[in-house]
Amino acid sequence: MSALWAFAAGVAAVELDTNLAALEAAAEQSGPKAQTELAVKYEHAEGVPKDFQKANQLYCRAARQGYAEAQFKLGWVYANARGVPRDEGVAAALFGMAAAQGHEYAAKLLPYVRKQLDTQLPDCLLANPPLLPVPEPVRTVLEEPGPFDRSEIGQLVRRLAPEYAVDSQLALAVISVESAFNPAAVSPKNARGLMQLIPETAERFGVKHVHNPTENIQGGLAYLRWLLAFFQGDVSLVLAAYNAGERAVEKYRGIPPYLETRNYVKKITEIYKKTSHPYNADIVEPSPIMFRTKGMAR
Question: What is the rounded distance in angstroms from the CA atom of residue 262 to the CA atom of residue 212?
Fold first, then answer.
């Protein structure tokens, strides 16, 4: 009898493994909604063995694709230490992502978790971009707040900007238009974080954790410092290069004729009124176009 029971248990185990594999394959093909539904089953042992690790992997995969319900669920996981160490900063970031897409419960829970500027998102969220929708750009630094406290980001910028000899008001104007003060922002071109650094710029200025607000701001300030030297403090050219790249500015010997870039420069210069900015000439040799513009000979 015991041998019969053992045989039956073995058959049942094989069938369970086969069914789970089929469920996971179906979820993978069907997208983030199906992945989230399967994650719920693993989290609560609904017809499958309870497995927080698999649940969290599925939640993270779906959250990375911008699915608000998965972002909310994963935030709940971190808020309540379900298979991971409790981390209110990660929970706040995830609730903020979901709330930005109109997730009602995420918005309700957001005030109850402590936001942390130096939160590092889980590695699974940072792979294979893009992962989030881009917040609607704002025109001033003082408009309604996004998922993170703008006053905290403002304090961070004002602390870091002097180290790079960049006016903090210029940096804040760039952040307001680039990311609407959302450290988790990702653009369709894979620009990331508060100052929307593309991977090449992040690597160029030594930013390893691009969604970490401190590192992102440091990278953005370093780039602004470089551009200020390259274009000899001409704010409009610096902003155009920040948006379109310095080579595009050189190609057109001024603000490129791209509607996006021209609107971008206009938005920021409506906030930051100064047309010139001090610069450190030792950072980099100026662009050749500056000599042509000023009638200088090299």
Answer: 29
For 48, list phi and psi in degrees, rounded to 5.
Answer: -140, 160
What architecture (CATH level 2) is domain 2-125? Alpha Horseshoe (1.25)
Per-residue tokens: 51: 């497995």
Q: Does domain 150-293 match CATH 1.10.530.10?
A: yes
Query: Where does the chain hold its CATH 1.25.40.10 domain(s)?
Result: 2-125
Catalytic residue (choose from 178, 215, 246, 250): 178
- Give the pTM: 0.58
Q: Is the dihedral of CA 103, 108, 110, 113 positive or negative?
A: negative
Tell me if residue 178 is catalytic: yes
pLDDT digits (tens, 9 = 90+) for 250-297: 999 999 999 999 999 999 999 999 999 999 999 999 999 987 655 443
What is the rounded distance in angstroms from the CA atom of residue 171 to the CA atom of residue 270?
A: 14
Taking the C-alpha atoms of residue 267 and residue 265, their distance in angstroms, rounded to an integer, is: 6
Q: What's the CA gap between 109 and 98, in Å, rounded?
A: 11
Cross-strand partners of 181: none
Contact 274, 236 (CB under 8 A): no
